[in-house]
Fold:
Amino acid sequence: MSTEAELTEPHSMSQILPIRMTSRVVRGYGRGSKELGIPTANLDTEQLQFSKDVTLEEFPTGIYWGVSRIADQSVYTAAVSVGYNPTYGNDTKTIEPHLIAPEQDPRRHASSTGETLMKDFYDQTCRLSLIGYMRPELPFEGLDKLIEAIKGDIAKAVQLGNEVNDTLMTEKDWVQSDEPARV
Ligand code: ADP
Ligand code: RBF
Ligand code: MG
Structure:
């Protein structure tokens, strides 16, 4: 069982967010699209560049939202998993954004579970800014519950991504640019 402390936002979070990162898209276990209908672009953890002085090891696990761009595509709102996918019990920590196309984009509900499905971007550069923390990563009993939770995260990320504020504008500008994460 999770304790109350684990379910609230880690309090160091205000110092860490927003955080920018760049890396390359690598292959994971291929479960995102096939089992969940929710593809995620897994970042190469060997090539991660962070805008702040933090290592992958110390980066708080959890489900975040932010903005992201792969290769020469547009900037999209993203729902992002950072951690060990406890439903599956992975040994390694991953950072995996799911990019959400806008409602009118034909790719927006193209996946088997009605979420965004784009083409594959393996080996391409991904730019990501994590803006907010949404919840801890949890071990779900069964894929249906995991999918339901992720769909809730996607809906929340869409809402947050439609707000108008300075942080969001600044982070979108950076994702749109080719500036390095760390200057
Ligand atoms: P893997 O375990 O290899 O990451 P996934 O099924 O999670 O497998 O994702 C496969 C690939 O699908 C991603 O690496 C990415 O190139 C592509 N992809 C397609 N649509 C999206 C999307 N909406 N968000 C993120 N990646 C996507
Ligand atoms: N995996 C979990 O085991 N528990 C979670 O709570 C969880 N939440 C997620 C939330 C979002 C928005 C996304 C995109 C993924 C999440 N995942 C979670 C990761 C999921 O298990 C993983 O993307 C697939 O297994 C494919 O690698
Ligand atoms: Mg993935």
Summary: The chain has a mean pLDDT of 94. The radius of gyration is 15 Å. The beta strands are 19-26, 42-43, 49-50, 62-70, 76-83, 94-100, 125-135.
